[in-house]
User: Fold this.
Amino acid sequence: MFNRRHFIITTAALFSQPVAGVALEQEQTAPIEPIAPRAPVSPRSNWASWDARVTPQNYDPFTSNPWGLHPRFLPTLVEANDGLIPGDIHVDAIARYLYHIRNDGMAMRYGVAIARGNLYEPGTYNIRRKVRWPTWRPTDAMIERDPASFERFKDGVDGGPSNPLGSRALYLYEGNRDTYLRIHGTPSPRSIGGRASSGCVRMVMAHIIGLYDQVATGSTAVLYPTEDGITARS
Assistant:
């Protein structure tokens, strides 16, 4: 014979398992909220230490060369051609030089790397932005063109010495349109003198740190044709 206490215990046992099963099923089928990717950052508090990290000890821009560059790619003061506007930048894509025109008829010349193949885009651009230790994200065109190299960076890369834009970046515009072309530092200084980038003009990080403060926003950057471009038009 079942007493009242036995009935209550038995009933609880009968009904507890299905209730728990329903709860478990609901937990397993509940939608999982996607985690939004964290936006890349470049903490200002790190900038000074990063500058020191990419600048050689006892740095002299005209002679320091721990990167093993050809001496002609070290910063050099040269006479500017007549008629050039002080403050503007001119990139000789054939010799791989960048010239920054000064007020005294002279220009500072730096070695650079330019884009591979037909990714180099000659033209006249306006420097609308300047950024210290920029973050970076490959363009959609870069990801589509070479997913093996760029897909993993689709959410962006934090600023720092290993960032592809390096220590400084000058952003090139046509009117109000960002061209996604940059003049920037590079963590691959041995590429200087060659054709290595996906469209931008690369400089040694210590060199562009020196150039950066001398360039005003609103200045013009002229990227001259490569040897291929000149041959095609001749």
Notes: The domain at 45-233 is CATH 2.40.440.10 (L,D-transpeptidase catalytic domain-like). DSSP finds six helices and eleven strands in the chain.
